[in-house]
Amino acid sequence: MTTSPEPTQLPATLAPNYTIPIVLIAVAVPIAALQIWVGLIIGIFGLFLSIQTAIIKLEFTPTTLNVYRGSKVIRTFPYSEWETWKIFWQPFPILFYFKEVNSIHFLPIIFDARMLETCLEYHCPEQGQS
Question: pTM value?
Fold first, then answer.
């Protein structure tokens, strides 16, 4: 059994969490029996999120949140530019929102939500959960 790193052990990379994709795929099957197109769309979205969960990683460093696709950094978000953040729908978190000075971002929770919240509270405590 592996344990999640502490946010002080930087960089901290969040573990993947397949809960949302699995739930979507499981829900798509009975919905498809009633409405094939709706079930198919939900199932395809669940499959898409499964693939994203496998390849997208979030890494917290001392100064930035880095988003990786595989081993390549595709986006960097400096904490100094963050205005606010929130994790929606506790106790089953499904969406992570954060606002920078010039943009807004929404990410599905496809990674360890507890570690995400721990890292956010450590790096951006004054911006969080308003």
Answer: 0.84
